[in-house]
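Summary of Year 1 activities. Much of the first year was spent building the evaluation harness for sequence design. The harness presents a backbone, in tokenized form, and records the residue chosen at every position. We chose the following record to illustrate the format because it has been used consistently in internal testing since the harness was completed.
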């Protein structure tokens, strides 16, 4: 991936095919990097089950999660937000690492 990928970011499908850069705000999430990876190196990506992610702000346990900037997690709050996980733990502040249940897909409804 361009610039490399640190452990724990949310990843998106990149271009060219096969690249998985950190997800940006609102991107559809492919999974979570399980280890640091240098640019162009392979990285193992977790796509389901329970994973650890870094928060971009405070998150309540049980909140539906979407991608924020730099591959971090944030609470989904609007009807068009693409949800990829449920927070199993609370994050008190940005950069807290919390457990989430991956594989939840959908959008927030009214």
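For this record, the design step produced the sequence shown next.
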């Amino acid at each position: 991936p361009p610039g490399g990928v640190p452990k724990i970011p949310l990843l998106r499908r990149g271009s060219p095919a096969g690249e998985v850069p950190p997800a940006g705000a609102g991107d559809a999430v492919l999974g979570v990097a399980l280890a640091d990876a240098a640019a162009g190196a392979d990285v193992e990506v977790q796509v389901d089950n329970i994973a650890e992610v870094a928060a971009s702000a405070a998150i309540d346990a049980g909140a539906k999660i979407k991608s924020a900037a730099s591959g971090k997690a944030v609470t989904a709050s609007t009807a068009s937000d693409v949800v990829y996980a449920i927070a199993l733990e609370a994050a008190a502040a940005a950069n807290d690492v919390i457990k989430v249940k991956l594989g939840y897909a959908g959008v927030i409804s009214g």
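The mean pLDDT is 85. Quantitative recovery figures across the full test set are reported in Table 2.
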